[in-house]
Amino acid sequence: MEPLSIFNNSERQQFQVSVDGELASLEYRVYDGRLTLMHTEVPDKLSGRGIGSALAEYALSYARSNHIPVKVYCPFVQAYLKRHPEYADLVVKSD
Fold first, then answer.
1. Which DSSP string corresponds to 60-84?
2. Residue 25 to residue 67: CA distance in whole angstroms
3. Cα Rg for the chain, rounded, in angstroms?
4. Is 59 in a helix, a strand, or coil?
């Protein structure tokens, strides 16, 4: 599979990627100086290809490069973080 061209659609508040004519996304909100990751959506047709993980990595790398703390509500991203503890320092614990 060729590299994914993930982009930040700030108007829709989603990190998005189009693959084979299908759109996958990671919905977020920016609130109180935090990047809040809400929900990952990958069409069934694209499942199992690492697209959700690529979206999670992109979002967390975006937060790191922009010095933005992260709050995670998305169960997929929570599972991703368990496999990738190198991003743990970005995550704000529950209030």
1. HHHHHHTT--EEE--HHHHHHHHH-
2. 22
3. 13
4. helix
The letter for the amino acid at 13 is: Q
Residue 59 identity? A
DSSP structural state of residue 58: H
Cα 70 from Cα 36, distance rounded (Å): 6
Query: 42-80, pLDDT tens digit by residue?
Result: 999 999 999 999 999 999 999 999 999 999 999 999 999
Residue 26's φ and ψ, nearest 5 degrees, are: -125, 110
In a 3-state reduction of DSSP, which class is residue 28? strand
Residue 89 CA to residue 28 CA, distance in Å, equals 19
Determine the Cα–Cα distance for residues 10 and 48; give it in Å rounded to an integer: 26
Inter-residue contact 1 to 14 (CB < 8 Å):
no
Token pair listed for 9: 């659609």
pTM as predicted: 0.93
